[in-house]
Amino acid sequence: MDLSSALRKFFGSFNNIMSVLGHGWDELLAVHLLKTYCLPVLLYSCETWYMTSSDMHKVNVAWNNCFRKIFNAC
């Protein structure tokens, strides 16, 4: 399973949301939009995937990176 396409679409959706929210975004609103619009893009048809631990790590890193961006963490 190649996750690169799903991750690309996920980050594209996330970047679109963050650009619309602008610099002074509300963190709770950003998290809500992330869960509502980006998570389904990332996990679309995940029931049919065979995921290795490396694939699971990539999904976790993508998810965590979005939270780091929202909350301005390092």
Taken together, the total number of domains comes to 1
Q: How much strand content do the residues show?
A: under 5%
Class per helix and strand makeup? mainly alpha
Shape: elongated
Helical region count?
3
CA gyration radius, whole angstroms: 13 Å
Residues in helix, %? over 70%
Query: Which whole number gives the mean pLDDT?
Result: 92
Overall strand count = 0
Note the gap between the termini: 30 Å
What is the H/E string? HHH
State the low-pLDDT regions, or none.
none
Taking the sheet with the most strands, its summary is: none
Explain the layout of strands and helices.
Elements: H1 4-21, H2 27-43, H3 53-70
Helix pairs in contact: 1-2, 1-3, 2-3
Folded structure, characterized:
By secondary structure, the chain is mostly helical. The protein has one domain. 72% of the residues lie in helices and 0% in strands. The protein is built from 3 helices and no strands. It has helices at residues 4-21, 27-43, 53-70. Helix 1 runs antiparallel to helix 2 (27-43), helix 1 (4-21) packs parallel to helix 3 and helix 2 (27-43) runs antiparallel to helix 3. The longest helix has 18 residues, at 4-21. The N and C termini lie far apart (30 Å). The model has no long low-confidence stretch (mean pLDDT 92).
